[in-house]
Design brief:
seven-stranded mixed sheet; nine-stranded mixed sheet; alpha/beta; 21 helices; single chain; globular
């Protein structure tokens, strides 16, 4: 039974800090010890039973089982670095069926063994139900807005309502009415709940990707734990667990419609306090029974027990016998502490019958004392005074063949293995053998961690989402490269990461090349000629940097001659060809570039949603005619007209140009949501022919049928263009006009890098709703100020996931030449206007 665990995330002053405090509080209630960490190196001395990684910014970098808590949609992980980090975890935790299936598919494709997915979310500790103490309900919303101005158009309108209160860092709420700002709340796991109770009502809204994957935000758990009524966006997760015990708004509706729905809910709560409190009590009961941290953390403990045996941290009951194994350790007089660390890691494998062949290329005075302390490892010594790197390696290989074991491995005295290294490699090797019975792989390797005395400046993969941080550990060699790349010296893999069959140790392989350096590369080449390689997709070893005679691939004087010799020693040899991981083309996305890339194609802007402007409401005949005009001329194409109405009744839609009806027909009731919404959504599809594409059109909504006394009121109207946008490459954007990048966050910075790499673009600066701090010497200003500065003769590239709201704002300002670069990882852009 685990006793302690680490909670890992890289943030400060963010929602993860609040989450970590809640986990610590719930763990204490369960009799567990937990501690929060900002970087992996600090976890080593704590020695937890396992690590909870709250952010996919962190890979597994320690010897302890590490579980990724995936609280974001699948699309958030679609970069080479994030995919690598996710695949490095031992197991996964999520409450989304869509994310679970994606993880299972990903693990299957990578042949990652025993990677279970448990049901867990970073919720809230259980609470006693305490009704709100306010008699005048207010609506509380919490957010740090780390990713920009989410729901900005709605929040700007909502902040003008007297009942609205927004909480979080002051710099995150500059775009709202100052009177609606409620202040910052301490990250102590409790104060947020008190703020909800003081307000009386909580608001929970989700982004489209979260809704599509059935993922909640923590707001719904906070509100339910606080015991106040919840107003939520319609989300499958919320419907599944809370049903009719919360009030819903339509997340696909325009901001004005959502505001109207929130108004109606707040009015109902004020008029029906007892019914509202009964709903809050029922939601609190569901949360306490099924979704509190005290209920979900045991799922993590159960997952941990599965991982211990499944990943080789412990012997699995009933597992087949392990093959015999010998490890070659090259050691000299570098450091007694280093050799002890390496031997400790071999002892920690708890591998039955493990043999150790220690090749001593120097006789240190402390060596006999060390070996006496590790007599349980069955160490045999090969004395090789003055032997170089190559001679000592090949002496060990010859000694291994004489032992008659089935498998062999290597471990230099300056490296170490994680506790499950050998068992996980054996499991992976057996799995690959079943997949390729005609020619089973004879070698399996893992990824490793690179550790250094001084912090690294960067990860081995740097992208637009990389955080500015320094750690003394980073992941290395997490790759699926084919053996055919070995002869290009692009496949670098530490020798201690593999196990291999002694069938590879032929007489030819055992001929010492006498290399001073790069003997490991040469050995990999010999193996690649004879077998395919299997990758375990695990991180189970650690290479330590130091200055005690370590190799240096960057030194051309040492390695140049060795590479030349290796070239001729492998001249005329053929290496098995193998398709690199992840290069199969996706028909929805086109050809791939062969790197570890997004396995789920990123979202492509497929429709623009514009709020139509209500022009007049007059009585005509038997009912009301609402006449509206679209925001500017409509492009040729097919549109969905979406009318949100309150009340009963049916409607006709007329498309009118210059007094002439060019299209008409009835609205259809949209498929009703499983939750109760204050308004109905009616749909009608229209086609704008070419002759109307440059002219204004008018949309008219006419009630039909008999009067009922509950005639519908138009709440809002939206137009959604179907069929997607034309696309272009970055180099097709005219370079004679200045370029504005909309979005001063990570996406905007990444777009700046792409423009700089392409060359020839004149960067005018950045547009942003809130931020004003210059970026790389470029100004950051509002869209209105930017357009006043350059006029309409400028290109605007939106580099933000909120491109639809931004595009609507730019349209209202009359902007043209607008492109969408979300996601920034795509090579092409959508031409919005």
């Amino acid at each position: 039974m685990p006793q302690r665990f680490a909670v890992l995330h890289p943030y400060r002053g963010m929602a993860e800090n609040e989450t970590a405090q809640r986990i610590l509080l719930a763990a204490a209630k369960l009799g567990l010890e937990a501690k929060e960490f900002a970087e992996s190196d600090s976890i080593l001395d704590y020695r937890p039973d396992f690590v909870l990684s709250l952010s996919h910014q962190d890979a597994k970098l320690t010897p302890f089982p590490t579980y990724g808590v995936l609280t974001a949609p699948r699309r958030y992980y679609q970069t080479p670095r994030f995919l690598r980090n996710v695949l490095s975890y031992d197991a996964y935790l999520t409450v989304s069926d869509a994310v679970r299936v994606w993880l299972e598919d990903l693990s299957f494709g990578a042949r990652k063994q025993a990677a279970p997915v448990g049901f867990y979310a970073n919720t809230v500790p259980s609470t006693a139900f305490a009704p709100s103490w306010t008699t005048v309900p207010r609506l509380a919303y919490f957010g740090t807005n780390w990713d920009g101005n989410r729901h900005g158009a709605l929040f700007e309108r909502l902040s003008r309502r007297p009942y609205a209160r927004f909480f979080g860092p002051a710099e995150s709420w500059k775009g709202i009415d100052p009177a609606a700002y409620g202040g910052s709340v301490p990250f102590d796991g409790l104060s947020v709940l008190d703020a909800y109770r003081a307000a009386g009502v909580g608001l929970c809204l989700d982004l489209p990707d979260f809704i599509a994957d059935g993922l909640p935000t923590n707001r719904i758990f906070e509100i339910a734990a606080a015991g106040v009524p919840a107003i939520c966006g319609d989300n499958p997760f919320v419907r599944r667990w809370f049903g009719g015990d919360v009030l819903y708004v339509d997340p696909t509706a325009p901001p004005d419609v959502q505001l109207w729905q929130i108004d109606r809910h707040m009015a109902w709560i004020a008029a029906h306090p007892e019914e509202a409190q009964a709903m809050a009590r029922a939601a609190h009961g569901r949360f306490t029974a099924d979704l509190s941290l005290e209920r979900l953390l045991p799922n993590v403990l159960a997952l941990h027990e599965k991982v211990l045996a499944g990943k080789g941290y412990a012997a699995a009951p009933g597992a087949p016998p392990l093959p015999s194994l010998a490890c070659i350790v090259r050691a000299g007089d570098r450091s007694e502490a280093m050799l002890r660390r390496a031997l400790d890691s071999l002892r920690g494998q708890r591998y039955p019958g493990l043999r150790v062949v220690l090749v001593a290329w120097a006789r240190a005075p402390w060596l006999d004392g060390v070996l006496a302390d590790y007599a349980d490892l069955a160490v045999s010594i090969v004395e090789l005074p003055g032997g170089g790197r190559s001679a000592s390696l090949w002496a060990g290989l010859r000694a291994v063949r004489r032992l008659g074991v089935e498998l062999f491995a290597l471990l230099d005295d300056d490296d170490e293995l994680f506790p499950n290294h050998y068992r996980s490699l054996v499991s992976s090797l057996r799995s690959h053998a079943k997949a390729f019975p005609e020619a089973p792989p004879l070698l399996c390797y893992s990824a490793c961690v690179e550790a250094a005395p001084a912090p690294f400046a960067n990860d081995t993969i740097v992208d637009g989402s990389s955080l500015v941080r320094t750690q003394r550990r980073r992941i290395q060699q997490f790759h699926f490269h084919p053996p055919s790349q070995l002869n290009q010296r692009s496949f670098v893999c530490a020798l201690m990461t593999f196990i291999a069959s002694t069938a590879l140790l032929s007489d030819e392989v055992l001929m010492d090349p006498g290399l001073e350096v790069a003997e490991d590369l040469y050995l990999w080449l010999l193996f690649a000629e004879r077998t395919r390689f299997a990758f375990s997709c695990e991180v189970t070893a650690c290479a330590h940097q130091h200055d005690l005679g370590q190799s240096d691939y960057a030194n051309p004087e040492r390695y140049g001659p060795a590479f030349e010799r290796i070239f001729y020693r492998t001249y005329g040899r053929s290496f098995p060809a193998s398709m690199e991981y992840g290069v199969l083309p996706d028909p929805r996305q086109g050809a791939m570039d062969g790197r570890l890339f997004a396995l789920v194609p990123p979202p492509v802007p497929a429709a623009t949603c514009e709020e139509a402007t209500l022009l007049m409401a007059t009585m005509e005949g038997s009912g009301t005619i609402w006449a509206t005009a679209a925001t500017g001329p409509l492009a040729t194409g097919v549109y969905d007209v979406e009318a949100h109405v309150g009340g009963d009744g049916s409607f006709m839609l007329e498309l009118v140009h210059d007094g002439m009806i060019v299209d008409s027909g009835p609205f259809q009731e949209s498929s009703r949501s499983e939750c109760r919404l204050p308004s109905r959504r009616l749909m009608r599809r229209i086609e704008v022919p070419p002759f109307l594409a440059v002219k204004g059109v008018e949309l008219r909504l006419l009630p039909t049928g008999k009067k009922t006394g509950r005639e519908a009121a138009l709440v809002g109207l939206a137009l959604r263009r179907r069929g997607g946008f034309p696309r272009c490459r970055l180099d097709q954007i005219p370079r004679d006009w200045p370029v504005w990048i909309y979005g001063a966050g990570e996406g905007g910075r990444a777009m700046l890098g792409r423009l700089a790499a392409a060359g020839g673009f004149r960067i005018a600066g950045f547009m942003d709703r809130e931020k004003r701090e210059p970026i790389a010497g470029h100004p950051v200003m509002s869209a209105q100020d930017a357009l006043q500065q350059t006029g309409s003769e400028a290109n605007i590239i939106i580099a933000s996931q909120y491109w639809q709201e931004i595009d609507a704002d730019l349209a209202a300002l009359g902007a043209r030449n607008v492109y969408c670069a979300y996601p920034v990882s795509r090579d092409d852009l959508a031409i919005l206007r």
